[in-house]
Design brief:
Rossmann fold; 10-stranded mixed sheet; two-stranded antiparallel sheet; 18 helices; about 40% helix
Length: about 500
């Protein structure tokens, strides 16, 4: 019996070792760095890294992750590597090394390598394509309406959405069923090992906060310093996506309301001031009735207004010029002679198209990858006929952005059913406290999402930026807390708020 007890004890020790093995760093090949050959990345170091296509089959087929590195400025005092992700999903991260000075302070960049990576299927990482050429993609996109109102627009858009995802299913290839955030987080842990770091230092923006939250709950003991800036609500996004889309529309409405109120407060410094809310609603409601043809300029649609306004809300520095454009369009639509006289040499405002950042890339890889990730990560209703009804409910609550959000992922209705996704738990206690950062008027990732992220994570601290734009920006206070946290693990006291150093409408 004693010998049996000893064997049982030994077996239990072995089982326990297996159970905690995921928290121990496994041997992995180092990332091989060399000078980047792509012109946009000249002067930086690039590398590739092989990861399993299916992490449940670690010795099976692999897929390639492309990376770029900005080495630490003071190698003798180097601490490790900061991995960064720009969000999306669908955002290529290698080019973030070019924006290093906007991401971290000189003190941080002196002591850390900054590494951007293109998540699987994106940019230089075996990029997926739903179409063979841009022309094929654009022919289908031309049949879609971003804010479909009429029965014809709704019918054509839903049909085109269906055809779009069918093309993705035909053409993406093996990555089709392996694009989940779960896999990206597992890839990131292998990249961490390849960089030689015992624990992860990471900055994720927007959707990148979901990558960070997923990583923290898969590998809680491997967290050194994780900053989540411009946050999603992880539980709602992965398990209640339709409700998440509804709340996301509300975030844009909150940001728009702040923009319009600040405009009126600014008076002459904002060209759209003087009942900015009333003018915006009048313009929106007129375009909802149908497009307006502007002589010698073209046509302006509800899609144009909603897309342009939504894009504007991402960057507080764009507010003054955008207000001027809105005032001009308002005058054009309602027949102001002065607006018509000032039309020479100007173009009607449009939302910029979603295109890749490398000039020789298929332009719509980012959008295709975003669809693949979102349709994999989050359950959405499978019947396209339901979406017009959702749009009515969304629009009643959120009159500018609700309809667009309701239709934005209708194509997921016929995406393959994929179980390879992570939807919690989100509350595993991490080795170090996670820093959650969010502006009060972030349109795409509203402050409520950051509060929920902070509550859901096992150990997190919220830093609030009183300001505008998507993710934190224009704040020496936020940059200072980034620096203290990344270098020394210092956290802002509970309830800390930072000011934005740029006014929405600077005095003229």
């Amino acid at each position: 019996m004693r010998r049996l007890a000893m064997r049982v004890t030994a077996a239990l020790v072995a089982v326990s070792a297996v159970a905690v093995a995921p928290q121990a760093a496994a041997a992995a090949p180092s990332i091989a760095w060399s000078a980047c050959t792509e012109e946009p990345l000249a002067g930086f170091e690039c590398g590739t890294y092989e990861v399993p296509l299916d992490h449940d089959k670690p010795r099976g087929v692999t897929t390639t992750i492309a990376l770029a590195r900005r080495p630490a400025g003071d190698p003798a005092q180097r601490i490790g590597t900061i991995f960064v992700n720009p969000g999306g999903p669908g955002g290529a991260g290698r080019n973030m090394v070019r924006a290093a000075a906007r991401i971290a302070s000189p003190e941080v960049l002196a002591r850390f390598d900054l590494v951007g990576f293109d998540p699987r299927g994106i940019g230089g990482s075996d990029p997926i394509q739903c179409f063979a050429t841009d022309e094929e993609a654009e022919a289908l996109f031309a049949r879609m309406t971003g804010v479909p109102v009429t029965a014809e627009q709704i019918r054509d858009t839903l049909r085109a959405d269906w055809e779009y995802t069918e093309a993705c299913k035909r053409n993406i290839g093996p990555l089709l069923t392996h694009m989940s955030t779960l896999n990206v987080a597992k890839d990131l842990d292998l990249l961490r090992q390849g960089a030689g770091d015992e624990r992860l230092t990471y900055i994720g923006y927007s959707y990148g906060t979901l990558i960070g939250a997923t990583y923290a709950n898969l590998f809680p003991n491997r967290v050194r310093a994780v900053i989540l800036d411009g946050n999603v609500d992880p539980e709602q996004r992965t398990d209640h996506r339709l409700a998440n889309k509804f709340d996301r529309a509300g975030g844009f409405e909150i940001a728009l309301d702040g923009f319009l109120r600040e405009c009126d407060k600014a008076g002459p410094a904002c060209a759209f001031s003087g009942d900015a809310r009333g003018k915006f609603e009048r313009l929106r409601d007129r375009l909802r009735q149908g497009p307006v043809v502007i002589p010698d300029l073209g046509t302006i649609t509800l899609d144009d207004l909603v897309g342009f306004t939504g894009q504007t809300l991402y960057n507080v520095a764009a507010f003054p010029d955008a207000a001027g454009e809105l005032q001009w369009v308002y005058g054009l639509v309602f027949g102001d002679p002065a607006a018509l006289r000032s039309a020479a040499g100007r173009d009607l405002p449009k939302a910029p198209p979603v295109r890749g950042w490398l000039p020789d890339a298929y332009s719509y890889n980012g959008g295709d990858a975003g669809t693949a990730v979102n349709c994999t990560d989050a359950p959405l209703p499978r019947d396209p006929a339901l979406y017009p009804g959702f749009a009515v409910v969304f629009e009643k609550a959120h009159p500018t952005f609700g309809r667009a959000e309701a239709f934005s992922e209708a194509g997921c209705a016929n995406w393959p059913r994929i179980r390879e996704a992570y939807d919690g738990p989100w509350n595993r206690r991490t080795a170090e406290t996670i820093l959650v950062v969010n502006p009060t008027y972030d349109p795409a990732t509203r402050l409520d999402f950051a509060k929920r992220m902070t509550r859901q994570l096992g150990d997190a601290r919220l830093l609030t930026l009183d300001g505008f734009g998507h993710t934190s920006n224009y704040s020496a206070c936020v940059t200072g807390w980034y620096t203290r946290y990344l270098l020394d693990g210092d956290l802002p006291p509970v309830g800390t708020r930072c000011a934005q150093d740029r006014a929405p409408f600077p005095a003229v």
